[in-house]
Automatic annotation (TrEMBL), chain A:
Entry protein name: Multiple sugar transport system substrate-binding protein
Record keyword Signal present: yes
Pfam family, one: SBP_bac_1
Record flagged with keyword rRNA-binding: no
Superkingdom in the source lineage: Bacteria
UniProtKB/TrEMBL annotation, chain C:
Domain ABC transmembrane type-1: 90-280
Transmembrane segments: 29-51, 89-113, 125-149, 161-180, 201-226, 259-279
Name this polypeptide is given: Multiple sugar transport system permease protein
Annotated InterPro entries: MetI-like (IPR000515), MetI-like_sf (IPR035906)
Keyword ATP-binding among record annotations: no
Pfam family, any one: BPD_transp_1
Protein localization: Cell membrane
KW Transmembrane (keyword) present: yes
Taxonomic classification: Bacteria, Bacillati, Bacillota, Bacilli, Bacillales
Family designation: Belongs to the binding-protein-dependent transport system permease family.
Keywords: Cell membrane, Membrane, Sugar transport, Transmembrane, Transmembrane helix, Transport
Amino acid sequence: MGKKKGLGILVLSLILVLSAFLTGCSGSSSDSAGGGDSKYVTLRILVWNNNPEGTKLEGEIFKAFEKENPGIKVKQVYAPYDKFNDKFLTMSAGGDQPDLVWIQPAAFGQFVGKNVLMDLSDKKIDKDAYMPNVLELGQVEGKQFALIRDASTFQLGYNKDMFDAAGVPYPKDDWTWDDFLAAAKKLTKQKNGKTVQFGMENFYTNELLVENGGGFVSQDGKKVIVDSPESIEAIQFGSDLINKHRVQPTSAQSQGLSNMFLAGQAAMKMMGPWDWADTAKNAKFKWDVVPLPAGKAGNVSAAAYLPIGIGKGTKHPDEAFKLLTFLSSGKGQDMQVDTISAVPVVKRNADKIETMKNAPENAKSLAASLANGKTVMNAPYIPEYAEIANKIQPVIDNINLKGGKDTEKQLKKIADQIRKEYNLK
Amino acid sequence: MGFVKKKLFVYLAGKAGRQMNKSRTFLFYMFILPWLIGFFIFTAGPMIYSLYMSFTDFSGLGAANWVGLENYKKLFTGDPLFWQSLWNTIFYTIFGVPLGLVVGYMLAVLLNANVKFMGVFRTIFYLPSLVPTVASSLLWIIIFQPDFGIANAILDFFHLPTSNWLLSEEMVKPSLIIMSLWGAGGGMVIYLAGLQSVPASLYEAAELDGAGRFKKFWHITIPMTSNVIFFNLIMGLIGSFQIFTQAYVVSSGNGGPNYKSLFYVFYLYQDAFKFFKMGYASALAWILFIIILIFTLIQFKVFGKKVYYEYDE
Amino acid sequence: MEIAEVKAASPVKEKKTRSMKVGKRIERISTYALLVILSTVFIFPFLWLIGTSLKPENEAMTFPPTLIPKVWDFANYKDVFTLVSFGKYYLNSIIVSFFVVLGTVLSSTIVAYGFARIKGKGRNFWFVILLGTMMLPPQVTMIPVYMIFSKLGWINTFLPLIVPSFFGSAYFIFLLRQFFKTIPKELEESAYLDGCGTFGIFWRIVLPLSVPSVITVALLSFMWTWNDFLYPLIYLNDDAKYTLALGILQFKGALLIEWGPMMAASVLIILPLIILFFVGQKYFVQGIATTGGKG
């Protein structure tokens, strides 16, 4: 009897399980991944975005490619920036790797080390088309694993009205840290003991290191250099801006304020071309840009760039490379300036930077910096780099927070710890 | 489906037997069959897979090489962040779970009163659980802003010492606990369902015996809802050990200041998807599994017996 | 506060003095006062969310932050509908959430009944396993689970989001077990005498008595599914298949977050949840009549 009853419940359970599959099926629609349509080759490219407009406009470039290559369709697969690796890792592990993938520079070393990207060294690449220092950004130990679609850099944006009001002359393209500090001091205003206007919003430590010829780890990834004299000086300078000269807000003062520059509370800010549209739209004052001030290494700044690679598992390597070429040196490069305001990497379009949408007056200084190779790659492609950077950053935050009285000692300490832990020089 | 069930019911409704023991076991497995099947298809495999990966150098990409106990050795002997994140998590759990339990329960009791517009009030109290974390975290950053935030303004008003809250090594965890209390309405829903099933007759009988309000609360309400209190305790514990999202958002993904908000699963996530150390992350996960299991079994031993069930064999 | 809920039904109460009534009134007033004060704390974030969603971009991040926008601007709402396929996301979210709730309620109630009231051999063992499945951080099982769905060919469909719920959710099985265990044994026994089988008891006696808890399960599972973005992100590739929570992440760019549209979208996303909750919570009250009457 009990058995019979049990049998009934078994039947019910099975119905339940079965209905799961049935209802599930009715909930889904159309094709599954891969796109095995015989007429077309479908390429999937995994991207993040800057905003939804960007994603749509990106599509126009792909449409142009499809028009040029009737047999190929392109499909964007999107993942937000901070969940990008989650998506790529699961896709890859599931044997469902995208044909092309945008790459976060911090993850590039890992992707290459784990053999998920196709080696492009033997492919036909028009090396002369690119601006200086661009191709190298996609290379690991001399081999080409990615091509760069846009490469740009941070500059300093400044509020002209504030400079005028304080009687400070506008900065020149070849200015130095001393010039910067002098201007920042004059642009900082206090009222009732509270700072109501800061000279600078937030000078990224990363950029200070580059300007002074320092860094966390040397470019070949073999040496810890965060305690080199240049690095110590740069980090100390950054801390002094906050704690000694008080021209830049402490983290407590700036917390929760995402854009003090736009709000008219800071005279200068780090600004890349990706900020132009937003600034042009929302700034209620006159503004312009200028290269970052020079430390010991001159008016240089860190390269900000987008490498795109081809997944090793792709079934359509030739078509994928065709698309990659289109994006990185082909017609895509001619389109991207106007459609998505992305800075081109090919020489022939260098002059287009000045006339980009929302470009400020001195945009030509950005074009000059890029054309003259004033950008520096400062994240070595070693697998451990993200982890190392993650360990050094809190130490720098702490120096900035506590006033930086023992900067050298703290940096030496963390540097030695990293050397020991990761077997570096 | 309805038709089938009806037929089935008729079929099963025959003369029920008292000779249960053996067939009871069979019946039990039939009832839990859907879950059992799901467990074997979707859960057991991946769990074993991750256990295996914890003995490898798997990066999440490419091949995995067997490294034996290497990950576990590193974790216990060569990784200060393991201990830091474990301590952060235990601190958060020890203070956050009991507080959340009490606050959620009090809210539910309050919202169980029979007054007008209660539906509106209940909905309002539940709102914080609905606001997406990214949005609510941004609000909390503004509330805790040392210079112009409301938190310091209130302290200032009472001439109390102010704090840097989320930017302070000492206060970042208490700040996160405060944030979590504000979402106590989540647990409230479950308490409410529990409170509603306390038979009104019990209160009436107690009133006849002249029991005061406190006595009724202590001797009727709490014991009669111990089933849900216990549930929220266990799930609060399991959830608290895996706290991650809020800390991730308010610290912009770095667990600062100085790793003081780097919670265990936060660190595990970094290892898995930022540093590409999936094998190591798996080892972290299994250590956490054991810790939570021990904590949970202790709760079952200590409190499980005190829970009131009508039917418990 | 419990006093309030016991209606003056018994004759004994009528004899009680007037002072009781005054006391009750004071209590009622203080309950309201407390509710109103606390409400301001709990409603604040939602008002702020609405406020921010109505601010033009340059006002959203000003100092000091304003709760009520200086300029009312519905542009953010327009952006939500024009920049992403919001309507389509809505439909997808409804489909996914509906089936997940259906699956969760159907399967979890049955399984929970087994765990709560049928003492079979190995019950404690499987119960510990059930709890154990919630103790391993999902981050490390994400890849192997994906591999299973990939083998099944379910990637870029709703199946990985829906099907597992038909096999029960550990959280809700545990919750319902807690509720089922409080139902008096006598009810079951009398049902046996009336000729009910185990399934009959479950279907005829236990489920009707558990309306509040089943509603709770349905509400919670709906809301969690509605707000979850991680699983949709992992399993869906086509914009046309996105759910709401995933779709609005597009406003969170690599370099900056578009707070205005993000907040506007958040308001639109949680609005149906608020309505659903408001409607659903009424059934908590209905539950009293059922359980209270028979208990």
